[in-house]
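Q: Fold this one first, please.
A: Sequence and structure below.
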Amino acid sequence: MGFNVEGCVALVTGANRGIGRTIVDQLLAAGAQKVYAAVRQIDSADPLVDAHGSKVAPVRIDLTDAESIKAAADEASDVHLVVNNAGVLKTADPLDPTAIDALQTEMEVNVYGLLRMAQAFAPVLKANGGGAFVQLNSIASMRSFPAFATYCASKAAAYSITQALKVVLADQGTQVLSVHPGPIDTDMGEEAGLKDIAEPPTLVGEGIIAALSTGDYHLFPDSMAKDLEAKYASFAQSVIEG
């Protein structure tokens, strides 16, 4: 199975900045017909509309708001590709007094938001021939970093859900891709103190387009991620993808 983005209609959450905005740019450069730029505040997508005109259609999605996601699925009923990129990171180690609140926030967005997106858009993808569903996870889904322990826990849960989606969505012909970046040069990466080791977000968008075309399930787009991939590959191939 492989998915070609050329001519497709896509939807990208968190499309107004960082990795999300870069993915929108790269999908259109690769020949996507239209991209729904899913954002919490519609006017935050104005720069994308200015850059790409009618090829970008802003749509409101808040991953904590199930009704906004259902309404977006009704509006974007022609979608072939969903890229669930939006997420939230809090800095909290397990003993931090804010850790429970941080984890609750991250689970609400990073995990329950993923479930809401999958449940709302799976029927849309099925109706349009299957298509593809891309989930932005992280190397943090596979290894805990103490300073971001709650974020890592939420991404581990999201990765687990993504594995289940791979199986259940295969029945309707929907390809699933789990993306695991390391430090990427975005506002989130800078806020986490990772700017000095971060790599360009273009690696993620380019990797997604290539991995979709070859039907891969995992994507490790940057240097740190590829180092992890080399150690994880045999387990992934025999257990996760087997």
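Q: Good. Now the second chain.
A: Here it is, same layout.
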Amino acid sequence: MAVHIKTQYGTIDISNTVIATVVGGAATDVYGIIGMASKNQIRDNLNEILRRENYARGVVVRQEENGVAIDVYIMVGYGTKISEVCRNVQSKVKYNLETMLGVSANSVNVFVQGVRVLPD
């Protein structure tokens, strides 16, 4: 499924993989994030941190009437304030979607799948 944007010049289709890559890149840039986690940890692998090519496994994109709803699954570093990290992820994801793709995010839901020690 892709996101469809209608403009005066025609229709733009943006695939969910592209949106997941933008969302994953924005989320992993935030301080306190170890990496992206899989939304199905039991099926995929319980403790796996996703690499850039697998960000789509940790992001769920749902198209709504006037935008998209995003679910992001992350791993947080030990010793960071989880609520602050999640708020930063929400704002950065929303900003990157609007500036890079022109897609407005109605909601960005952040799910913390685990806490790990930050690498030095």
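Q: Anything worth noting on the second one?
A: The chain is about 30% helix and 40% strand.
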